[in-house]
Amino acid sequence: MFGLTARLFCVKCMVLAGLVPLLGGCTDKMAAPGVNEAAKRTAVAVNGDVDLACSTFYFLWGRHAELLLRFEEALEFYQKALICDERADFISEKIPILLLRLERTSEAETWLADYLQSHPDKTGMRMLYAKVLLKQKKHSEAMREYQIISERHPDDVAILLLLAEMYITAGQPEQAEPLLDRILGKDPHSYLGHILMARLRQAQGNTDGAVDHYQKALKRNWSSDLEMELGELYIKAGRYNEAARLYRGLVDRDGQNEGARVALIHVYLLQKNDGQALAELNRLKTIAQQPQRVDLTIARLYAKQKQFDRAIAIVEKILVKEDLPEARYFLAVLQIQKGRLTKALKQVRLIGPSAPEYADAFFLQIRILREQDKLDEAMRLLQEQIDAGSLRTGELYIMLAALHQMEGRDDLSKSVLLKGIEAYPNDENLLYEYGLLLESDGDHEAALAVMQKIIEIKPDHAAALNFVGYSWADTKVNLDQALDYIQRAIELKPENGYIHDSLGWVYYRLGKLDQAVKALETAVKLSPDDAAILDHLGDVYLESGRIREALQAFRKALKLTRDNDKEKKRILEKIRILEKQEAR
């Protein structure tokens, strides 16, 4: 009986392994040491689709491969073991774990989804499935799985905490709050419960409630990390004195706590307490792993106070000890502040292409050359960089085109921008500069088409939205869409007077004079020295019957109109007509 069973076992194993079956029994070469004996002990007669001996054989092979970290091989053997016994759940649970170890996350997700269709009550596998979904950034799907687990295990605090944290992270505090209420109702001293409730209250804008729960959590289990989190809350809420006291306490408790000292310096800077910030920076330098970085921060603080010579002296000492590109770039900026362009140029030229600051240093070099009226050299460097292709950015073309414009070579400027657009067809900055050049050349329709393309590429490009919206308002077309565009632009740039001017003009075209006046008055406050805005305000005042205010606006516009005889003449004519009306 045993011989027949062993033969059936070995034949099925070899068929699964892709081997030619032998008429004799299994050979020792087929198994790892000790596997045959284990298989023989568990061998039973084949019963339907289940062959426990075959399943055990492959399981042991798989386990042996897994222990040797041969995961591909282990996966293959476990899958064959399941063919012998598809009901072996302990083997099934190995498959997705191996897939994850092999970074085959999508396959693990699919496998788990299929498995849970036939095994819906397997909580452990559902937990793993939810984690895989999170890894795939499928947060809503993962949340659904945790909800299912929570419904089946309503009193499992660990699951409730996990689900509440997911709701908070997903920006759904209203879903998290009842779960945390249940947790704290069961255990009023729950450490994690109070931390999550603190974060929930913070998300709701309830700073006092958040502080209360942080303090309860700290009372239960103090940690410097949690106090640092509370300190961040104080800073966000503008409660700088409380933040300073908290960080001061952390520093007094542990003088080596570099993070707390940095945070304390940050608070002092927010309080504009530069003296105490500087004192703490000097203390930090004695414990910091990278004291040169602290020196660089001290130099920045002196620069903020406009003590440029002191800042330069510190940075030069840093560079004697270590060639830090960041410090070299900052030294160049400081030298520019002192008007020492040649020294600044020397520093930026010492920053190599491998440094993160290289791009900024190169563009600063071009700006210095422009200040020195060395346009030919600047243009040569830009063209060389474009040809080399090592610094891949559309800004190279923009700067080169601007230099050509400075020399009055609009034809070359346009050519450069077109080459840039050919290299970077979706670069909105390149397209915008090209659109402005077309507008200055008088080709308004072509400029408008370019601006509309920018909006297609980047719907939140405020300048393009304003350009198109104002153009439509000026020509009295698409006024409703023009209003939508300009309102979107204002949301993006609320302090821009020119966009408020466009808003006033579109209201004017829509016949909404009160709203037009309000928008244009706001525009004048934001950009008081712009003649065009004052001219628009005068037109709207005039349309509203406010002749005296219109006359004042036109007179101010006239004073600000320079080097444009045509505009001066046009505004003077308006003033002349209104003054005649006033005289009557």
Structure described in brief:
By secondary structure, the protein is mostly helical.
Walkthrough of the structure:
Among the domains are: 459-508; 529-584, no CATH class. Mean pLDDT is 87; it is low at 1-48. It is mainly alpha-helical and 584 residues long. The protein has helices spanning 2-17, 35-42, 52-67, 71-84, 89-92, 94-101, 105-118, 123-135, 139-152, 157-169, 173-186, 191-203, 207-220, 224-236, 240-253, 258-270, 274-285, 291-304, 308-321, 325-337, 341-349, 358-371, 375-388, 395-406, 410-423, 428-440, 444-457, 462-474, 479-492, 497-509, 513-526, 531-543, 547-560, 565-583. The chain is built from 34 helices and no strands. It starts with a helix and ends with a helix.
N/C terminus separation: 128 Å
Helical fraction equals over 70%
Structural class call reads mainly alpha
Strand content: under 5%
Mean pLDDT: 87
Unreliable runs? 1-48
Shape: extended
Radius of gyration of CA atoms, rounded to a whole number? 36 Å
Number of strands: 0
Number of helices: 34
Largest sheet: none
Please name the defining characteristics of this protein.
76% helix, mainly alpha, 0% strand, 584 residues, single chain, disordered N terminus
Write the layout of secondary structure elements.
Layout: H1 2-17, H2 35-42, H3 52-67, H4 71-84, H5 89-92, H6 94-101, H7 105-118, H8 123-135, H9 139-152, H10 157-169, H11 173-186, H12 191-203, H13 207-220, H14 224-236, H15 240-253, H16 258-270, H17 274-285, H18 291-304, H19 308-321, H20 325-337, H21 341-349, H22 358-371, H23 375-388, H24 395-406, H25 410-423, H26 428-440, H27 444-457, H28 462-474, H29 479-492, H30 497-509, H31 513-526, H32 531-543, H33 547-560, H34 565-583
Helix pairs in contact: 1-3, 2-3, 3-4, 4-6, 6-7, 7-8, 8-9, 9-10, 10-11, 10-12, 11-12, 12-13, 13-14, 14-15, 15-16, 16-17, 17-18, 18-19, 19-20, 20-21, 21-22, 22-23, 23-24, 24-25, 25-26, 26-27, 27-28, 28-29, 28-30, 29-30, 30-31, 30-32, 31-32, 32-33, 33-34
